[in-house]
Amino acid sequence: MSDTAGDHPGVLVFPPLLFGLCLAGGTVAHVVCPYRLPLEPWARGGGLAAGLAAVLFAIWGERTMKAAGTNVRPNLPALAIVSNGPFAFTRNPLYLAVVTLFAGIGIALASPAFLAVLPPLVLVLHFGVVLREERYLEAKFGDTYRGYKARVRRWI
Question: Would you call 94 exposed, middle or buried from its count of C-beta atoms within 10 A (0-12, 13-18, 19+)?
Answer without folding.
Answer: buried
